[in-house]
């Protein structure tokens, strides 16, 4: 353990960026919900309650679909304040809401028109699909969303490779196009007034533009500008390797310690694979470093990358940064290879820090020598905690003994999912306020 007198207190944020961003998103959604309701009322009411419910659920389904696109657009302002993991999780739950809303739209309209025409619902649906422009496209869109929703259920998602899940998920964009053309063709509210028409075109145009900018234009622009290449591959142990990447004008790349990129190494057999790896050193304007543990054939092959390999990196992403500090002092808790963003954060943070590094054995302590030297240079405390998962070496009594003032610190946590869940329970038991706990789960599929 290294311990040196603390640095002067760091400046902390007055307004929490995550609260500002969440409040902004909620306000945007609420305002649009009100606008949609107003246009619905202005379009007039029919005589059939089921048709009325069908129209209303369809309108709010369209709004949720546009909102979903915004959540996964990976816009830097939102991502830095909320984090890709939380935005992806919200996207997932909004997606299930969207699915039920659109199912309600189809069911209510079919039953309502069947009631008005004195037909059975199946024949009514067939008739609508064959005679009304846009209905067949809407049914195809709904079927695609049902498939995407089914593979997004947790049980199905765990049994599926990310690449397979991602390929199926791409059909959501086909569903979006089909749903929009359906709304243009038969949406009574869409054509009820010029203001309503302008609103819906603006809503869809804004959402699709945000998606194109965040997912396509910005990554292409940054990679064209920075021209990233591998400059060194350094094994840290038998399973972990550090990769150094450099390029042009990296001092203008808005990356911070704690963030991650989606890395594509442009070799013949890996160019199509994107993996989320955190920066394991604070960006210095000249070099980026990632440190990865072998978790399959793809990641195991990283140690064989050749110097000069071109790199396509999407990002930086993530809200696991010092931007969200609320206290002048910090506690950094790392588990296993989760030490990579923690090591980078320690390099950037001002004020006194305590680092707790949890591993099974001393040999698993990746980057420990760097952590020790960095802790000594910055006047931080470093605790290496070893041993099997049971008994829990970071249970409330043990963590309180290591860091008696932890309730007065910001806590940054990164590690394997079971360890993070256990530590979050410990922090709650010790009364650490939720606003002082910062963590991010690196899962592209939520």
Automatic annotation (TrEMBL):
Q: Has the keyword Transmembrane been applied to this entry? A: yes
User: Does the record bear Isomerase in its keywords?
Assistant: no
Q: Which positions, given as ranges, span the membrane?
A: 25-45, 51-72, 93-114, 134-153, 165-186, 198-218
Its record classes its membrane topology as:
Multi-pass membrane protein
Domain of life from the UniProt record: Bacteria
Q: Which residues form the FAD-binding FR-type domain?
A: 223-323
Name-wise, this protein is Ferric reductase-like transmembrane domain-containing protein
Q: What PANTHER family does the entry give? A: 1,2-PHENYLACETYL-COA EPOXIDASE, SUBUNIT E (PTHR47354:SF8), NADH OXIDOREDUCTASE HCR (PTHR47354)
Please tell me the species this chain comes from.
Streptomyces bullii
- Which coarse location class applies to the principal site listed for this UniProt protein? membrane
List, alphabetically, the Pfam families matched: Ferric_reduct, NAD_binding_1
Q: Which UniProt keywords apply?
A: 2Fe-2S, FAD, Flavoprotein, Iron, Iron-sulfur, Membrane, Metal-binding, Oxidoreductase, Transmembrane, Transmembrane helix
Q: Which Gene3D superfamilies match?
A: Nucleotide-binding domain of ferredoxin-NADP reductase (FNR) module (3.40.50.80), Translation factors (2.40.30.10)
Cofactor(s) required, per the database record: FAD
What subcellular locations does the record give?
Membrane
Q: Which InterPro entries match?
A: FAD-bd_FR_type (IPR017927), Fe3_Rdtase_TM_dom (IPR013130), FNR_nucleotide-bd (IPR039261), MRET (IPR050415), OxRdtase_FAD/NAD-bd (IPR001433), Riboflavin_synthase-like_b-brl (IPR017938)
């Amino acid at each position: 353990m290294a311990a040196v007198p603390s640095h002067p207190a760091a400046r902390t944020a007055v307004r929490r960026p995550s609260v500002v961003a969440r409040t902004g998103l909620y306000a945007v959604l609420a305002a649009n919900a009100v606008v949609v309701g107003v246009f619905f009322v202005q379009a007039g009411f029919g005589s059939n309650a089921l048709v009325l419910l069908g129209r209303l659920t369809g309108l709010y389904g369209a709004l949720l679909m546009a909102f979903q696109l915004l959540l996964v657009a990976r816009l830097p302002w939102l991502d830095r304040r909320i984090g890709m993991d939380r935005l992806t999780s919200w996207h997932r739950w909004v997606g299930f809401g969207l699915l039920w809303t659109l199912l309600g739209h189809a069911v209510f309209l079919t039953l309502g028109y069947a009631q008005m025409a004195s037909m059975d619902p199946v024949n009514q649906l067939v008739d609508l699909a064959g005679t009304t422009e846009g209905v067949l496209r809407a049914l195809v869109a709904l079927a695609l969303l049902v498939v995407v929703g089914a593979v997004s259920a947790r049980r199905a998602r765990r049994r599926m490779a990310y690449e397979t899940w991602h390929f199926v998920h791409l059909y959501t964009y086909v569903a979006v196009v089909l749903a929009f053309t359906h709304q243009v063709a038969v949406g009574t509210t869409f054509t009820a007034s010029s203001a309503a028409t302008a609103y819906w075109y603006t809503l869809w145009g804004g959402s699709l533009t945000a998606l194109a900018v965040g997912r396509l234009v910005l990554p292409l622009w940054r990679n064209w500008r920075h021209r990233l290449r591998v400059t060194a591959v350094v094994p840290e142990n038998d399973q972990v390797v550090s990769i150094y990447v450099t390029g042009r004008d990296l001092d203008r790349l808005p990356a911070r310690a704690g963030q991650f990129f989606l890395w594509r190494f442009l070799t013949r057999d890996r160019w199509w694979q994107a993996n989320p790896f955190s920066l394991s050193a604070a960006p210095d304007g000249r070099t980026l470093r990632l440190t990865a543990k072998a978790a399959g054939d793809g990641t195991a092959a990283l140690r064989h990358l050749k110097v000069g390999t071109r790199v396509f990196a999407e990002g930086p992403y993530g809200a696991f940064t010092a931007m969200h500090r609320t206290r002048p002092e910090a506690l950094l808790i790392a588990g296993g290879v989760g030490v990579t963003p923690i090591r980078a954060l320690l390099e950037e943070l001002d004020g006194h820090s305590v680092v707790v590094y949890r591993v099974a054995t001393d040999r698993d302590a990746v980057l420990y020598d760097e952590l020790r030297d960095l802790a000594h240079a910055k006047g931080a405390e470093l605790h290496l905690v070893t041993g099997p998962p049971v008994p829990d070496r970071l249970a409330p009594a043990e963590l309180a003994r290591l860091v008696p003032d932890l309730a007065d610190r910001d806590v940054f946590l990164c590690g394997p999912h079971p360890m993070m869940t256990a530590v979050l329970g410990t922090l709650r038991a010790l009364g650490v306020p939720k606003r002082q706990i910062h963590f991010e789960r690196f899962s592209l599929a939520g």
